[in-house]
Design a protein that fits this description.
By secondary structure, the protein is of the alpha/beta class. A five-stranded mixed sheet has the order 3-2-4-6-5. The protein has a two-stranded parallel sheet with strand order 1-7. Helix 1 packs antiparallel against helix 5. 39% of the residues are buried. The structure holds uracil. The site of uracil (URA) has 12 residues, from loops. Pfam families: UDG.
Length: 216
């Protein structure tokens, strides 16, 4: 049995991300996009960077790629309320250009802190930027997708980025097949670690939902 962290601890990290001015992206952003999902999440997804819609709404993966991510999550019997979703950089690069190495570096500690706090059993690495950040020594997604990589007692699974599969039927099929493997990895992790319980001093479920899911 594991005790989940508290919503307040997660919101404290989110607050620092929103106030962050550590790289040039803060100048052009509408707002930072810290992450979205419950503190009890056993599965986390890390994408590339917020796009235009995410920058406007303050939430990750709210566009077409987000719709596909939702379908992927639902294909293994979960919903978006079961997963914590974030990005390699938390502010939109202008014109949706690739994040630059110094921007990824400036944002890096936030991702490390979030992973250390949430202790997810499985981390989905969506696309090459997240792969470069989380498993820099690994081969590319084309070789590694769907495979489990164990680091620091955590399972990482590189996957094609949902945006890449939007107009590519065979990548889409591969993504759904890889997600079935993720289901197996989650089940194995749960069998070893047991259920995750909320700490006794935590806020009520309703307050928690409002805080962590709706009150970004
Ligand atoms: N939306 C995000 O939040 N991240 C991506 O990588 C793509 C779309």
């Amino acid at each position: 049995m594991q005790v989940a962290p508290t919503t307040e601890e997660l919101l404290e990290i989110h607050g620092r991300i929103r106030a962050c001015v550590a790289c040039r992206l803060h100048v052009t952003r509408t707002q930072a996009v810290p992450g979205y999902g419950p503190v009890e999440a056993r599965i986390m997804a890390v994408g590339e960077a917020p796009g235009e819609k995410e920058d406007r709404q303050g939430r990750p993966f709210v566009g077409a790629a987000g719709t596909l991510l939702t379908e992927l999550v639902e294909s293994i019997g979960l919903t978006r309320r079961d997963i914590y979703i974030t990005n390699t950089v938390r502010c939109r690069p202008p014109g949706n250009r690739d994040p630059q190495p110094d921007e990824v570096e400036a944002c890096s500690h936030f991702l490390d802190e979030t992973i250390a706090l949430l202790r997810p059993d499985v981390i989905l690495i969506l696309g090459r930027h997240a792969l470069q950040r989380l498993l820099p020594e690994s081969a590319g997604i084309t070789r590694f997708h769907g495979q489990r990589v164990v680091r620091d007692d955590r399972v990482y699974v590189p996957l094609y980025h949902p945006a890449a599969a939007l107009y590519n039927g065979s990548l889409r099929e591969t993504l759904f097949a890889d997600m079935q493997r993720v289901r197996g990895y989650l089940d194995e992790a749960e069998a070893v670690r047991g259920p995750r319980v909320r700490p006794e001093h935590a806020v009520s479920q309703r307050e928690h939902d409002q805080l962590s899911l709706f009150a970004l």
